[in-house]
Amino acid sequence: MLNIALPKGRLGDQVYTLFSQIGFECAAIYENDRKLVLESPENDVRYLLVKPSDVAIYVEYGAADVGVVGKDILLDANPDVYELLDLGIGKCRLAVAGPEDYQEDRERVLRVATKFSTVTKKYYSSLNREIEIIKLNGSIELAPILGLSDVIVDIVESGKTLKENHLKVLETIIPISARLIANRSSYLFKNDVISKMTVQLQEVLAK
Predict the structure, then answer these.
(1) Tens digits of per-residue pLDDT, 13-58?
(2) What is the four-CA torsion angle of 197, 51, 137, 110, rounded to 10 degrees?
(3) Are 113 and 96 in contact (CB under 8 A)?
(4) 133-163: b or e for each residue (b if 16 or more CB lie within 10 Å)?
(5) 49: Cβ–Cβ under 8 A, 6 or more apart, which residues?
(6) What is the pTM of this model?
């Protein structure tokens, strides 16, 4: 049985639609209960419903054979997994944002609020810019509004939340989308089914 780490929420719904199109249907997905492990013995698949930011952990440690995770998480956590395919869904961007009237003072250390510490450090290091990371896990837009930070580094989709809080995108660091990943051992021992899945997904996405 193939164990798939499925991210909860809207992205998970899109991912399941893709998997169901290539033979990995699981009727239990549509049952209104709180189960976190859903099986379809007839299709030889088991779905694990997990928090999106935890998908890579489940895959890296072998609790799941494959999973779908945002590129932002792969860049920041750098899990020991195989990245097999860009699914082209869940598109957004990792960006630097700040107040609408923001003017950078390059004479002092830049304070950056973010939950993406690794990517942020790497980005500013490439610019030879000295920064202070302020690690936050939620409501990051508040940081520059309250003077906690100069700017933020966060995921931006439509930009509506930024606009409502009188912030704007200053720089785009990298485009983000959902990626199919695989556990290294699973890719070796379940290579036939995982490779076939990857090819089938490519065909569906190409339509």
Answers:
(1) 999 999 999 999 998 887 767 889 999 999 999 999 999 999 999 9
(2) 0
(3) no
(4) bbebeeebbebbeeeebbbbbbebeeeeebe
(5) 6, 8, 12, 35, 36, 37, 38
(6) 0.88
